[in-house]
Amino acid sequence: MVRSALRSALGAGFMVAAMASASAQVLEIGADASPTGLDPHLITAFPSFMVVNGNIYEGLTAIDKDLKTVPGLAESWTAAPDGKTYTFKLRANVKFHDGSDMNAEDVVASIKRVQSKDIASPLASRLAAVESANAVDPQTVELKLKEPSAALLSSLATIAIVPSAMEANKDALQKTPVGTGPFKFQEWQPNGFILLTKNDAYWEKGLPKLAGLKFNIVPESATRQVGLSNGQYALLPNIDAATALQLKGKPNVKLAETMDLAYTLIGMNVSKPPFDNAKVREAVNYAINRQEIVDAALFGAGVPGGPLSPALKTWALNVNQFACYKPDPAKAQALLKEADVATPVTVTLKVLPRQDVKDIAQVVQEQLNKAGFKVELINQEQGQFIQDWRNSNFDMFASINAGQPDPDEYFYRTFRTGGSTNVFKYSDTEIDGLLDQARSQQDQAARKAAYDKVQQKLACSGPVAHLTYGTLFSAMNSKLQGYDVMPNRSLLTLRNASY
Amino acid sequence: MNRVLLARLIDLVFVLFGVSIIVFLMIRLIPGDAVAIMLGANTEITPERMAELNRRVGLDRPIVEQYLLWAGAALRGDFGTSLWTGRPVAGEILLHLWPTLELTFLALLVGAVLAVPVGCLMAQTRGGAADVAMRVTAIAGLTIPSFWLGIVLILLLASWAPGFASLGYVPFSEDPVGNLQRMTLPAIALALPILANLSRLVRSAMLDALGQDYVRTARAKGLAERKVVYKHALRNALIPFLTSVGIMTGYLLGGAIVVEQVFAIPGLGRLILGAIAERNYPLIQATILVVTAGFVMVNFLVDLLYIVVDPRVRA
Amino acid sequence: MQRLARNKLLTFAVVLVAIQVILALGAPLFAPYDPMAQSVARRLRAPTELNWFGTDQLGRDVLTRILYGYRTSLIACLLAVGVALFAGGALGLVAAYYRGWLDRIIMRIMDVLFAFPVMLLAIGIIAVLGPHTYSAAAAIAVVYTPIFARLLRGPALVLCESEYVAGARAIGASDARIIFLHILPNLASVVLVQTSLLLSAAILVEASLSFLGLGTQPPTPSLGLMLSEGRNFLMLSPWSAIFAGFAILFLSFGFNLLGDALRDTLDPRLRGQP
């Protein structure tokens, strides 16, 4: 009896296994961390972003793999000559995953939701310039701006369009997202997996090609690697160089890479000594050997970075143009002497708890200690780190930031006096003027000229020592076709992938 | 016997009460503003958000009232909702409970089943170098870090049997074979110290039994040695065995936390580590409370069994 | 014959523990390099005559970091178990000596603390104190206090009833004098055995917590942390993780063997019990 029951159980097991392999187009993804929620207007962390961005949700515009702004849910738009009114023509036949039509009301509601004090979306600052949003007709939305904003179109790509019924709902979307994207939410087993299935009613005919995406949450790097090489997972997205190196040349595994938009940085608090002195900040830049950081912590897979990522080819200056990027500990010591501060300069460095940042912080500590500083590392928990960061409670911090496709999105809120993420309390009239000027300009060449000056000034004496831009890798099964790694870590190209 | 039972029950209630107080106080002992820290992990801190969260967690009330509300709700199985996902905490715990229970059960099973033959073998090679070697091996098994063993096992498996899908977790009800296939390695990694511990128990019980008069008598009567050993010695080993199952449940829970992390099993360990990373104090509190209460209950049941099995305790 | 084997085992255990303790405490003397000194060029090297155990992901000498890691782990665990012994021992003795309501209150509190699974209480304490070597040590100390309290209370009760203590009391010895001179020495062997076994367990707990990122933080060298950092590079260079794993094993093993052998030698009645 027991034996026959066992046998039938075994049989059932094999059947399930066989069924699973017949519908093997669900892409098994090995993700390193669990999202904390899936509301596109509330999430801040990469694990959540990776799941929802472009897969479940879309914005009016989209960012393509070359970081260009392209049409998303809006098929076209026009800007008034004064740059203060934008009119978006929405795509026809776009349906939400619950079957309802997506129209101008939903777009207006989504924008209001992000701006709402009650929802308190961290994306609100990206829509700071938007004064009002109106539905002209079901297919047309008009945005009125307080002042011209050159980065608006790029920012709109990050504002997901959600059903208008969700405008005041704080909880529902965190658990069960409803979007317009090529994949719809199916199941979330906390700490186990998140399963998305194909959206059959997706507006772009023929997409997506996969039957679904399954984000398996696997915290151990070694376990993910083994899972990819034994075929259990078909994609390890956005992995670091060390992991990529270990997977290189494994059978059935291929690697794809791109320059990361995210950058590692040392932030300095300019509201108190010693970093209120520009010379001390310059000394930090001279003391740091960026190539050594790339070699040590990134395994050579990356580049020394200035204020803008080299992935932003139209904007970024070559780092050779910055004098302080040539490491010179003696010059650093001399600058400290000029600054008339007591050496060694004793400071603390708070570290974001991520392995790559921890490694980089250890290298920086060693470099600074050789050039007249005495740095104490403080390893913090994520929550504590963010709280201290927000409250400007630090001498220095080491962190990694997601970069933005448009310079305005990064510079204005980070370095403008009173900017929403200007936790360094940096205030410089020249920088403020340049940032205001570039923001109101429509002319590309004039914007570029202004941002060139901003980069020059920030590179050596700004409140941030930009360290490195890494090479971003994805490792995948060699059968996976059509997926491109994106510098902003979005997985939206998975809609074109087949397996 | 009833008096013993009553005394144990009173102890149980007292211990559970004490545990609840300690767990409750946890959130209040956090240096700094707990609410700001909780918020800091995920969203922007605004005074309104802080006030709202304060209300939600109930930190705006007098402490005794807070405790009574919290404990009262907990007794009804209501642990509030998780701060970020908005799911009921009780549901989250239930969802993560099964993988951990299965893992600990399998580890206990593997350890206990193997301990009998290993322990017997150890007892038979009494004295001399072989005995010493076995004891040393058993201690080594007891002190091997299970997370390290887990990683080594994964890597070994990857190089020996690359096709063997062995990672992650599928519920037993969905795919029993796949489930057991995935649980084998983590169960072994967790079971080794259990095996080491239990086999020593079996060994010493066997040695005791072999020295007892009745065994000598039985043997003199011509019963087969194996039968003698098994019948008497294993029965003797039962009581210390029960005691150590209680103790080992605690070890297993601790070990499971780390092993789950290595093998990507969505159990209680992952739940609590995730909760720590996102500063989800209500979830941390509830998980510690529920697991500890479970642990206390297991020990209580073991105690009861003990009374049933060993007549001397009844007196 | 058996007795001899047992003593040999004890000698072996003592030597094993002594070597590791000396290496740990003398780490600055024995270590060939600075534990923090990085070298990009010599990163993730396999063992050579320059770096006997290879180098880690930042080019630091693994042998050096293991010696310092021993130091971190050992100091943290000695501190933790020491505090637990002192606090738990004191509570247990007081409870046994004064009996009555004091005994009941103390032991009930100990029951409550003892009810928590070790790792879980440790994680809870760290959630409050934040991740640090000393948070881990504090957690271990709290968890082990009731073990010592219970361990000492039982035999102390028996001793207090004994004619020997009654005699001391009769000639007018003070409470403290009785506890320290007459009761404590008689409990030394039990304490020694248990301390050794708990040290072994504490080392594993500390390593587990550091492995999970809840204990010692970089750049401080710690065995659990080395294992945790090294595991990200296992397929490139497993050395740091492998040696750190063995170090944890040997340290914990040494103390466990010592406790086991001590128990055999000091108290033959308990032989073979786990």
Helices and strands in order:
The complex is a heterotrimer of chains A (499), B (315) and C (274).
Chain A: H1 2-22, E1 26-31, H2 46-52, E2 61-63, E3 69-71, E4 74-79, E5 85-90, H3 104-115, E6 130-137, E7 140-145, H4 152-156, H5 172-175, E8 183-189, E9 193-198, E10 212-217, H6 221-229, E11 235-239, H7 241-247, E12 253-268, H8 278-287, H9 290-297, E13 302-304, H10 329-339, E14 345-351, H11 355-369, E15 373-379, H12 382-390, E16 396-401, H13 407-415, H14 429-440, H15 444-461, E17 464-477
Parallel strand pairs in A: 1-10, 14-15, 14-16
Antiparallel strand pairs in A: 2-3, 4-5, 5-7, 6-7, 8-9, 9-10, 11-17, 12-16, 12-17, 13-17
Helix pairs in contact in A: 8-10, 9-11, 13-14, 14-15
Chain B: H1 2-29, H2 34-40, H3 47-57, H4 63-75, H5 89-124, H6 128-143, H7 146-160, H8 176-211, H9 213-220, H10 225-263, H11 268-277, H12 281-309, H13 311-314
Helix pairs in contact in B: 1-12, 5-8, 5-10, 5-11, 6-8, 7-8, 7-10, 8-10, 10-11, 10-12, 11-12
Chain C: H1 2-25, H2 27-30, H3 62-98, H4 100-114, H5 118-129, H6 133-161, H7 163-170, H8 175-211, H9 223-230, H10 239-266
